[in-house]
Amino acid sequence: xxxxxxxxxxxxxxxxxxxxxxxxxxxxxxxxxxxxxxxxxxxxxxxxxxxxxxxxxxxxxxxxxxxxxxxxxxxxxxxxxxxxxxxxxxxxxxxxxxxxxxxxxxxxxxxxxxxxxxxxxxxxxxxxxxxxxxxxxxxxxxxxxxxxxxxxxxxxxxxxxxxxxxxxxxxxxxxxxxxxxxxxxxxxxxxxxxxxxxxxxxxxxxxxxxxxxxxxxxxxxxxxxxxxxxxxxxxxxxxxxxxxxxxxxxxxxxxxxxxxxxxxxxxxxxxxxxxxxxxxxxxxxxxxxxxxxxxxxxxxxxxxxxxxxxxxxxxxxxxxxxxxxxxxxxxxxxxxxxxxxxxxxxxxxxxxxxxxxxxxxxxxxxxxxxxxxxxxxxxxxxxxxxxxxxxxxxxxxxxxxxxxxxxxxxxxxxxxxxxxxxxxxxxxxxxxxxxxxxxxxxxxxxxxxxxxxxxxxxxxxxxxxxxxxxxxxxxxxxxxxxxxxxxxxxxxxxxxxxxxxxxxxxxxxxxxxxxxxxxxxxxxxxxxxxxxxxxxxxxxxxxxxxxxxxxxxxxxxxxxxxxxxxxxxxxxxxxxxxxxxxxxxxxxxxxxxxxxxxxxxxxxxxxxxxxxxxxxxxxxxxxxxxxxxxxxxxxxxxxxxxxxxxxxxxxxxxxxxxxxxxxxxxxxxxxxxxxxxxxxxxxxxxxxxxxxxxxxxxxxxxxxxxxxxxxxxxxxxxxxxxxxxxxxxxxxxxxxxxxxxxxxxxxxxxxxxxxxxxxxxxxxxxxxxxxxxxxxxxxxxxxxxxxxxxxxxxxxxxxxxxxxxxxxxxxxxxxxxxxxxxxxxxxxxxxxxxxxxxxxxxxxxxxxxxxxxxxxxxxxxxxxxxxxxxxxxxxxxxxxxxxxxxxxxxxxxxxxxxxxxxxxxxxxxxxxxxxxxxxxxxxxxxxxxxxxxxxxxxxxxxxxxxx
Length: 947
What we know:
By secondary structure, the protein is mainly alpha-helical. α12 packs parallel to α18. The longest helix is centred in the middle third of the chain and has 43 residues. About 9% of the residues have low confidence.
């Protein structure tokens, strides 16, 4: 992308931003309302407007190289993302669910669900220090990949592999891929048979149809074919070898056999007679010119060169025309295939926009160069100002302060106290925040009167001050009580009449919205006279740098001048005391007041001692790798989690007042919004969350995707990993994990089967592992110590959450997310994805009835079914025996025992625990219960009236 393109895109982003701000201003003019449906529509429409705006701002920030402009865009991107997350959170609070639906706003704005999907921000991942990056890169080979006992997404080809023999200690260990060797051997065998078959067919054709397969030129077409005899140099030629020169127009009667297109014999030199050259030139240029024989002989070389150029031009034109014809033919053939449905344009190939992505990546790599150049320009400008303007700045400051001395002496015949550096120094003089001569004289007069007062008068004044303080305290208490009463009354009104939503309150017009307005206003003022299109090299604006550095140099030189002038003031004061015959007292410097740390009665928390202060980062990192705490993971993406949306949930929830089940596709959007705070920008994020669901529903895949999307270091604290560590060493281990997590940010701490840490009753086969030893200290040692601004995330997975103590489980995890069952749409996408990975399955395979029958089967079951059914031997028979849906169903039914989807009773256990554990789900369950009771009462009243 060029600078001009980015500038135009930024202009379009500005207009979009202005539209969103205008809509915000219109919303603030709305009257307060109690209708939740209206408020939901307004908030969802605002949210749908902010999502595309955030995408545009992210792209501008990603591709802008000019540092000063990038700072403005970064601030706008941060606040816009904050505002988007605030609006989404308000919609969630209104619907009392993590699964929200904004279909009404989509219809109003003519958008589709993909348009409001939160994308991975361009500023991901967060950059680490060079030392940490090098440490992770060198140790990545020693890490073991993340495994899960409960999930079945990672399906290996165990049936195609064999046991390997023990390694020979005398040789290096080389792992053999037996399955790959078998496939290569099978392909070689197939190719050998195919070549033999084609050779047999060709041999039969040569024997039966010699005229077709042995074409010979006509005798009359061969004329004046030269034969040349040559041999290698320094070699005695026993038998002369005949070489026939065949050109591209060999079968044409009139042919030029002078040029050898592919091969020229050694020692061959092209000889052209002048008469032949003249004839050819006369053919090309019909203009007749009378030239003498002597001139012809002199211009022979030029004519030969021109003839060669013309011949080359003709050849280039010929090949170019043929290339264009072939290209047009291929284009027409491709368009015809698309129209007939033979080619799917969506599957033309991965990464269609590879050129654009490559150009953006190259431009992104240039950012450090511009940052370094900007910093260098700042240093150079500061040095220049210090050298050229430093002495004049010091003179200006001293002249200003001396004028202040002169003014005080002329009007008050005295000198005021010189301001201390911690108070602001002579900056107070420039701002006019010091006492004027009249005020100084009034203060001195009051001090003199104070000395004349008696002890009784001073006591009375002190008592009056105490009474005034007590009255002020009483007034504050009364004001607080009034506020409490107002809040109580408002809450009571809310319970009776419902909550009143006022769009002018800070609840809706938040700081993020105000910051966006202020930033864009400031940008318009600063950049009004700057043409961004002219700055093609994206150089920094030196005027702003000069102003900033001038102010910085002014502040740095002012303390030096203050020290000198403070001495001058003392000399002036001493001379004044001598003239007025008063005793001189040197001015005592005021002490700086200590700032209070907090409220009274609260002490600062002492930081816990570092248990590993004597150890290096490398040693801690290596120890965690040896204990398999730090693990590698597969490079997955959240978008790889396959699932569709529930398109009918909006009407059921908002108009029919039902509680529709969520779909698997909505899990992606929820997790993406939770990860926004894991980047370099300070956005809100949960400290911890837990994924609930049956085995095979992709929980481990989502953990790997979360780690990959944020480029995080993965710490595995599962029961099997922590089992070998004694319980008395668990606090030290968690201290090491948290310390390394802060150093290597962003980091993800994963706990597979997190319910085992809080077992109600430990199973007999797991008592040796002592799974609850980590759960006893997890909250105090990890969750409580994670700060909001730290890029550390605790992620848990659980397939049997009801086996844990709910109180301790809820305390450690801030949010819970229940993965929904597979519906028809998600199942259809899963079957299509799984079958598309296997070569030979036609696109006409009917997936719809298969998806209806297999609703409820987990993604792991569907993927394993396709993997096991379509093995290598079955794929070889697909051309003769096409795949049927019955084969895929037989895989589930012919197993011992047969595989069935998860039962409704079993899934109800997950729903019950989810409604108890998650805050929003718990509130929604209460609201639905109250709504059901009200409906029952209404029906009972209607039944009584009918009687």
